[in-house]
Write a structure and sequence with these properties.
Blueprint lengths: L5 H27 L1 E5 L2 E5 L6 E3 L5 H20 L10 H16 L1 H4 L2 H6 L8 H15 L4 H41 L2 H6 L1 E6 L8 H10 L9 E5 L3 H22 L11 H11 L3
Parallel strand pairs: 1-4, 4-5
Antiparallel strand pairs: 1-2, 2-3
Helix pairs in contact: 1-10, 2-3, 2-6, 2-7, 3-6, 6-7
Length: 283
């Protein structure tokens, strides 16, 4: 096909230069200190040493209590659009029966009695029994009425809140234990001050996300707007690191060119677009 046009060659070369610079920024931060939270793990990159992996960020109590909170939501998803007092469609009945069987089979593992004894729960949680009783009643009747489903949902609210509060405490305890060890045993005071944290999580969870709140407190930095604490929506660590490198590199260039570190964190054409649209669409 021959050589690409000169303009494209220049732009392609820019992309290569940018990607290499981004990788250098990431590697440099790994040397200074980078904590990556993904799934059940906390990974510490530090001073060119091997990556230290701290597992257990999703302790058993966290999973059990989150599961308690999920069961009423699953029932609402199964019945919300068919709770009209009419016989349930056969496929939906089968789905509900299968889910009820799964919950009953796992009931010993789901029961949060252990968390109640450990003090993670403020009061007993009765979601498991309530959910099983409600599902059995719907299966026996072959239908669900909207007022019954609504009452079930409202009656579940308090227990859901208690279960989710316990899940938050369990995960925060696990996180704090590991961070305390990292801060006191592995990092100097200066290294702690230069540490960056990259949190990978669900795209719906960003506002008020547990780890963002925690690290905002311990790093004394805002949950948003400070690039020392970065949230990535997803679970691909390599893509998350690329995003981190882009944020860091763009902040440096933005400060150097525009004397505004966040200028390149919005579209480079954004300012003139807003201005020119006033003229373009004036008539």
């Amino acid at each position: 096909m021959g050589e690409p046009p000169a303009l494209k060659r220049v732009d392609d070369r820019f992309v290569e230069i940018y990607e290499h610079a981004r990788q250098r920024v990431i590697d440099d931060q790994k040397t200074k200190g980078l904590l990556v939270l993904v799934g059940d793990e906390m990974r510490l990159h530090h001073a060119g040493k091997r990556v230290r992996v701290f597992s257990g960020m999703r302790p058993e109590a966290y999973d059990r209590l989150k599961t308690n909170g999920h069961i009423p939501m699953a029932i609402l998803c199964l019945l919300g659009d068919v709770a009209n007092g009419e016989p349930l469609p056969a496929p939906r009945l089968r789905d509900l029966a299968a889910y009820a069987d799964a919950v009953k089979a796992a009931s010993a593992d789901i029961d949060p009695e252990k968390e109640l004894r450990a003090g993670l729960l403020d009061t007993p949680v009765h979601l498991l029994d309530r959910c099983i009783t409600f599902m059995d009643a719907v299966l026996d009747a072959g239908c669900a009425k909207p007022d019954e489903l609504g009452a079930f949902a409202r009656e579940s609210e308090e227990d859901i809140n208690v279960a989710l509060a316990g899940a938050a405490r369990a995960q925060l305890d696990a996180c704090h234990e590991r961070v305390t060890r990292i801060r006191t045993e592995l990092l100097s005071a200066q290294e702690w001050e230069s540490l960056w944290v990259l949190v990978l999580g669900n795209y719906m969870a960003r506002q008020g996300e547990l780890f963002l709140q925690y690290f905002s407190r311990v790093l004394h930095t805002p949950e948003q707007g400070d690039r020392r604490l970065v949230y990535y929506e997803g679970d691909d660590v390599e893509l998350a690191l690329e995003r981190l490198g882009t944020l860091m590199l763009d902040a440096h260039a933005s400060q150097a060119v525009f004397a505004e570190k966040d200028r390149l964190h919005r579209d480079v054409l954004a300012d003139e677009t807003a201005r020119y649209l006033d003229t373009l669409l004036a008539g």
